[in-house]
TrEMBL record:
It comes from the Bacteria. This is EthD domain-containing protein.
């Protein structure tokens, strides 16, 4: 099976050699954070590193023959469901990227943390969320990334998520082009080998 021009075996090998040098000690095997997209040929690797990257951080060499894109960012928010897997390696990863204009950043962050996350966490399947402020590589690149870890796909159709998408505050954002141009991808964690 190939994703982004790379076999799963090549991706795992790359994780264990190139990424291992910068991974957190609590992440014994970087390949545990390897996910495949549900409806497209794309892999995602979530690799928390010990030191927060700077905008000019050294980018890692990519797997040969891949259409690899590396996103560096700083963790700005984390929430865990009571009893959730502490490592954040749930079966499903829902990645949401926004390109938030500077003038909207503060309100966007407040909405996400004060309204959106508390509402969706009424559903037990939402296990953990990590939000990042990304270092943009170019104009038009995403500025914010939310990684939602779910224990069950039912969380993506939960009444709590539906309600969170119907609030007046969210409807205000829907009037903005940057909010509707969001990039959302559902991934499933690959088993380790």
């Amino acid at each position: 099976m190939n994703h982004d021009g790379v076999s799963v075996e090549t991706a795992r090998s790359w994780c264990r050699t190139v990424l291992a040098s910068c991974m957190r000690a609590s992440e014994p095997d970087p390949a545990h954070g390897l996910y495949a997209a549900f409806n497209m040929s794309r892999l995602a690797l979530v690799a928390p590193c010990d030191a927060p990257p700077s905008p000019d951080a050294q980018r890692l060499p990519v797997p040969p023959g891949s259409a690899f894109r590396q996103e560096l960012g700083e963790l700005t928010y984390e929430k865990r469901q009571r009893g959730a897997n502490a490592a954040g390696h749930e079966r499903i990863l829902y990645a949401v990227r926004f390109n938030v204009p500077d003038t909207w950043t503060d309100e966007f962050d407040r909405w996400y943390e004060e309204e959106h996350i508390p509402m969706i966490y009424g559903c037990r399947h939402w296990a953990m969320t990590r939000r990042y402020r990304l270092h943009r590589a170019g104009e038009g690149d995403a500025s914010h990334l939310a990684l939602h870890y779910l224990s069950d796909a039912g969380g993506l159709d939960a009444p709590e998520l539906q309600a969170a998408r119907q609030t007046p505050w969210r409807k205000k954002f829907l009037e903005q082009d940057w909010f509707t141009a969001v990039d959302k991808i559902v991934y499933f964690r690959l088993g380790t080998a």
